[in-house]
């Protein structure tokens, strides 16, 4: 398949990694539909090729269903759910408030899986459902603690994604849980290891190399397999 025939839906692309992924897929000739939940001037300003822009808040099931219906009958080689939050990340779980911990679980674990379910029938044969996880979602690598609610939400996402993949075991697409590296974004902060372009370019390379493979893999932006 020629790259210009490939299409991606990037969910949560107003800034940070979603915006960087949109730019990177477009630069490689993919057709991109990118979503934001509000005004997204940086997304709208992308040149020389612009993405198609849609609105969706992944925590709103009705909005997700509307997006799916609006995009009918389009299918995508890659659906990449990037959106996530890290509210209260620096507070140990018992010290934070319940509502914040539950909101992080909702946005980072429940909503991406519900989005994936809504769009499972829109992944083209040989394509991928990619969910933005984190190395902090690895239970076995958690020896130092910190970022407690956030870690738990990404560990939950990983587990739910394996269930999603098992549930769709006969479907003609694969599932990838992606760790982007520690990246300089609003969430990652200015001290992070790498810039958005390095991470996004790496993730697109990993995704392109993974097309046609089924099952559920937990990979980083260099293609390294991570331990659960
Ligand atoms: N940066 C890192 O080092 C790092 C490392 C590991 C994993 N990650 C993961 O990578 C993803 C992107 O992170 P980032 O660093 O780019 O963060 P960011 O700069 O804070 O951007 C977060 C993005 O998610 C969107 N979003 C949040 N809640 C949403 C919702 N309910 N519906 C739709 N969109 C929503 C935001 O939209 P608004 O502009 O409307 O707020 C924004 O586009 C997250 O899942 C994060 O957990 C990041």
Oligomer: single chain
CA(first)-CA(last) distance: 33 Å
Computed CA radius of gyration, to the nearest angstrom: 16 Å
Question: What is the level 1 CATH name?
Answer: Alpha Beta
Q: What would you say this structure looks like, in words?
A:
Helix content is 37%, strand content 18%. It is of the alpha/beta class. The longest helix has 22 residues, at 98-119. 44% of the residues are buried. The mean pLDDT is 97. The chain binds NADP nicotinamide-adenine-dinucleotide phosphate. NADP nicotinamide-adenine-dinucleotide phosphate binds next to helix 1. It holds the Pfam family adh_short_C2. It comes from Methylobacterium indicum. InterPro entries: NAD(P)-bd_dom_sf, SDR_enzymes, SDR_fam. This is Short-chain dehydrogenase.
Short structural summary:
Pfam families: adh_short_C2. This protein is of the alpha/beta class.
Offer a few descriptive terms:
Rossmann fold, alpha/beta, binds NADP nicotinamide-adenine-dinucleotide phosphate, 37% helix
List the helices and strands and how they pair.
Blueprint: E1 7-11, H1 16-27, E2 31-36, H2 41-44, E3 52-55, H3 61-71, E4 76-81, H4 98-119, E5 123-132, H5 148-167, E6 174-179, H6 196-210, E7 216-220
Parallel strand pairs: 1-2, 1-4, 2-3, 4-5, 5-6, 6-7
Helix pairs in contact: 1-6, 3-4, 4-5
The chain binds NADP nicotinamide-adenine-dinucleotide phosphate.
